[in-house]
């Protein structure tokens, strides 16, 4: 009987602790940027895998200094991302064309569209008060940016003070940040 009571207490404690941790993870957002580039690390689930995105330093590209990120995938492969901010506008350096793409401009209004540096994809600021439910959090007051490239369409969701929180494809959540 004591063993069953102890097991019950441990299960209840674990459940209560995980709720608090999950709540902290979902509520730590502060700041005024939808695309902050100072977040040190995130674990991002993507379909049936994940990657860790971490700042690894700074790198100069085309005479401008960027924050360099590594995206270390579960299978061991890595990709790199180069972002910089100037006057509130966040730019991404595109290695394909040795040029920049705007990732976010706070002056854009709902419905604004812009192209990637290689002109192969189009972004549209689709919503200013979007919502997203992931396995870990229910988000509100998100901006939603649609990306259309070839036959693929994604909707990316960004939370003020935290940045990227998830992606939908054809109305289904396929990606989201996760606690680690």
The fraction of residues assigned to DSSP E strands is over 45%
Quick check: average pLDDT?
86
How are the strands ordered across the major sheet? 6-5-4-3-2-1-12-11-10-9-8-7
Number of helices: 1
Signal peptide: 1-18
Keywords: Signal
Structure notes:
Keywords: Signal. Residues 1-18 form the signal peptide. The protein has 1 helix and 12 strands; from the N terminus they run H-E-E-E-E-E-E-E-E-E-E-E-E. The protein is mainly beta and 180 residues long. The protein has one domain (39-178). Strand 4 (78-86) and strand 5 form a beta hairpin. 21% of the residues are buried.
Present the secondary structure layout.
Elements: H1 2-27, E1 41-46, E2 49-61, E3 64-73, E4 78-86, E5 89-94, E6 99-104, E7 113-115, E8 121-133, E9 138-149, E10 152-159, E11 163-169, E12 172-178
Antiparallel strand pairs: 1-2, 1-12, 2-3, 3-4, 4-5, 5-6, 7-8, 8-9, 9-10, 10-11, 11-12
Keywords: Signal
Signal peptide: 1-18
């Amino acid at each position: 009987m004591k063993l069953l009571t102890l097991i019950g207490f441990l299960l209840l404690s674990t459940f209560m602790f995980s709720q608090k941790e999950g709540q902290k993870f979902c509520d730590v957002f502060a700041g005024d940027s939808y695309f902050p580039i100072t977040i040190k690390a995130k674990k991002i689930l993507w379909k049936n895998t994940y990657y860790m995105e971490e700042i690894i330093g700074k790198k100069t590209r085309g005479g401008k200094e960027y924050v360099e990120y590594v995206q270390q995938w579960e299978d061991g492969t890595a990709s790199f991302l180069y972002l910089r901010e100037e006057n509130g506008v966040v730019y991404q350096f595109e290695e394909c064309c040795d040029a920049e793409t705007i990732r976010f401009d706070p002056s854009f209004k709902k419905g604004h569209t812009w192209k990637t540096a290689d002109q192969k994809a189009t972004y549209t600021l689709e919503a200013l008060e979007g919502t997203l439910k992931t396995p870990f959090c229910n988000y509100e007051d998100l901006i939603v940016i649609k990306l259309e490239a070839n036959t693929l369409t994604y909707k990316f969701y960004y939370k003020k003070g935290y940045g990227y929180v998830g992606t939908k494809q054809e109305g289904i959540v396929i990606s989201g940040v996760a606690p680690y």
